[in-house]
What does this fold into?
Amino acid sequence: MAKLAINGGSKVIDSPLGKEWPLFGDTERRNLNEVLESGVWWRGGENPETSKVFQFENAFAKFQNAKYGVACTNGTQAIELALKALGIKPGDEVICPAATFVATATACILVNAIPIIVDVDPGNYQISPAAVEAAVGPRTVGIIPVHYGGYPADMAAINAIAEKNDLFVIEDSAHAHGSIWNDQGCGSIGDIGTFSTQMGKALTAGEGGICLTTDEEIADKLFSFHHIGRFRDRPFYEHHLVASNLRMTEWQAAVLLGGMERLEEQANTRDANAKYLEAGLREIDGVSPIERDDWVTRWNFYFYHFKFNSEQFGGISRAQFVSALAAEGLGCGSGHLSPIQKNPLFTERQWGPACFGDNDAPDYAAVETPECQRIHDEEGCSLTHRLFLGDTSDMDLMLEAIAKVRDNVDEIE
Ligand SMILES: Cc1ncc(COP(=O)(O)O)c(C=O)c1O
It folds into this structure.
C-alpha cells in the first residue's frame, strides 16, 4: 500500500503551520484611527511628535542600528533613491548578484546606471566576494549586495573591496528586517541600506520602503530626493534637485509601527525555529541546511532556504521532491528565482527611456552565473517565513514530512 500522500497515502501535515500573514492588532487599529482623525494624512506636518512616518523612520533606523531613516514608497524606489543620493551618473556600473529579485538591478537602469551581474557563493547563496572583485572595472562606482532570503551577506569582504576601489555599498535589505551581521543590523553596514515593506515581507504595510544610513549628509540627500528636491530647512516652494515624490503615507507608517512591536520577538522565534530545523535537516540524507557563517548573529528571514541533493535523495529531481512534499502538506518553493539577467528585459535589451546607451550595457544573454543557475535548477528549496512563527512542534512536522518522502522515495517514479 502506498505510504506517500502523492500516491494516495495519508498526509503528515493536515492543518496550517506557523501563523497567518499579515498579522495585525490593536496598535494598528488605534494608529490608523489617529491618522484618520488627525486630518494630516501625509508626512508633511514634519512634526516629530505627531508624524507616524517620522516615528517609524526613527524607530526602524534604531532597530537596525543606523542613525537616520527616510521612508518611501517601496523597496525598488528605495534603491533608486539610494543611487541618486550617492551621486550616480549615466553609464556608471554597479555590481549586483544574479540571485535576487529583478528590482535590485532594474533600479540601476532606472537611474541610467548599468548593472553588472555576478554569481553567488554556493555555500550561503549570497553574492560572491570573489566574483565582485573580478567584476570591478574602470566604470564601477558601487556594489549592491543583497541579504538574499534575509541571510547576512559577507559584508566584511564586500566593504573591503569597496574601500580598496573607492566604491559605494548599498545593502539591498528587502528580505532582512531584523537580520544581524556581526552584532550589527543589516542595512546599517554599507553607505545606505534599503528595505521593502511590501506585502509578504517580514515587516509590511502592503507596500512601502525605507532607506537607512548613518551619514548625515547622505540622509539629507535621501530626504531631498524623496521630497521633490526640497531641503529640510528651506522654504517649502524652493526646490533644489530634480526629484520625484516618493513619500510614504501616514497610513503605511501607522501599520508599520504596529508591526515593529512584534518584530524583535518574531525575529528571535524564526531564528530559533530555523536552528532547530537545521539540526533535523542534518539527520536526513539528501537535504542539508545552509551552514551558518560566523558573522551571522541572527538570521531573520523573508524566506528560509535549504539544499536538496538528488543523488543522495534516491535520484529523484528537486521538482519531484517539492511535489511529494506539497502532497504531505508542506508547501516548499523551488528555491531561487532564475538568474535575473535571463529575464527578457535584459536578454532583449528593453531599457525603456534609460539613456546610458545600448552599446554600453553587457550582452546579458551571454552572462553566465553557473552557481546561481545550478541552485535554481537543482538544489535550492525555500520555505516562507510565516511557517516559522509557531513552535518547534511545527519544525518536527516539517522534518517528519521530509523524512517520510526520503524513506519512501522508491514510490516516486
Ligand atoms: C531583493 C529585493 N529588492 C528589492 C525589492 C523591491 O521591493 P518592492 O517590491 O517594495 O518595490 C524586492 C521585492 O520583493 C526584493 O525582493
About this structure: The mean pLDDT is 96.
